[in-house]
Write a structure and sequence with these properties.
cell membrane, binds adenosine-5'-triphosphate, Rossmann fold, MacB-like_ATP-bd, six-stranded mixed beta sheet, alpha/beta, four-stranded antiparallel beta sheet
Length: 258
């Protein structure tokens, strides 16, 4: 890791500590902020303008849901906020630090330490047990942490999502709901500032989905994590602190209209 990357990551770490020290909602500022985001790409000879002047801010311990039709740009926004894609205009700030200008190394380090991601299709590594899947995320985020400590923290995270008895199970030995709870433990074990969830209940039945969401909300509140989730599930969206809608690449706040 080069000097600049270390500095950037240290800055993010300091931002995290500052936020942790403060009461949620106090003057800490948003955990994630998008300012005038535009995102375009060229596909099949055509210029696509996918996100148009998107502005968004999510505070620590706040849960914000994004709803909107298929193809409106929800996942694209999440990818930009995760640092997995780059905006063509505007700024993304995490804990006050602009990530738009970071290079690939810096972005990778930023993601490991700051962002947890929960996917619709779980994205667990099939050859690793539940414990190993969770431990690996922590090992990557905290390379200096000792293995026994990592395993202990991973086991605790799995216990918190009710999977104490499933530590040595491979993903294909678990139900969808169990796999998503492993995904949640993996996303939260690093105590991220920001949790991004793309249709986290999309492949689960209603009851199982509700259970995963309860766990996600509880963990977010306990760890003071800002949560941004995409969902087609109205009930889930209504439980969020704020509900935003994406339509044709533009974001609007629905909460005040209800
Ligand atoms: N790499 C790409 N190449 C071409 N088009 C893309 C690419 N990525 C996204 N798009 C287009 O950008 C638009 C927004 O896609 P995005 O996945 O962000 O929508 P979404 O709101 O998340 O949809 P869904 O709810 O179906 O997941 C879509 O029209 C999609 O086809």
């Amino acid at each position: 890791m080069n000097y600049e990357a270390n500095r950037a990551a240290d800055h993010v770490d300091r931002g995290r500590e500052n936020l942790r020290d403060r009461t949620p909602g106090a003057d800490a500022g948003p955990v994630v902020e998008a300012k005038g985001i535009n995102f375009g790409l060229r596909s099949a000879g055509e210029d696509l303008h996918i996100l148009k002047d998107v502005n968004l801010a999510v505070d620590a311990a706040e849960v914000v849901a994004i709803v909107g039709p298929s193809g409106s740009g929800k996942t694209s926004l999440l990818m930009l906020l995760a640092g997995l894609d780059r905006a063509t205009g505007g700024q993304v700030l995490i804990a006050g630090k602009e990530i738009t200008g970071l290079n690939e190394d810096e972005l990778a380090r930023f993601r490991r330490n700051t962002v947890g991601i929960l996917f619709q299709n779980f994205h667990l590594i099939p050859s690793l047990t539940a414990l190993e899947n969770v431990a690996l995320a922590l090992e990557i985020a905290q390379p200096k942490m000792k293995l026994p400590e990592i395993r202990e923290a991973a086991a605790k995270a799995l216990e918190e999502v009710g999977l104490k008895e499933r530590l040595t199970h491979l993903p294909n030995m678990m139900s969808g709901g169990e796999q998503q709870r492993v995904g949640l433990a993996r996303a939260m074990v690093t105590k991220p500032l920001l949790l991004l969830a793309d249709e986290p209940t999309g492949n689960l039945d209603e009851d199982t989905g509700a259970r995963v969401i309860d766990l996600m909300f509880n963990m977010a509140r306990e760890q003071n994590t800002a949560v941004l989730l995409i969902t087609h599930d109205r009930q889930l969206a209504n439980r969020a602190d704020r509900k935003l809608t994406m339509a044709r690449g533009q974001l609007a706040d629905l909460s005040e209209q209800q």
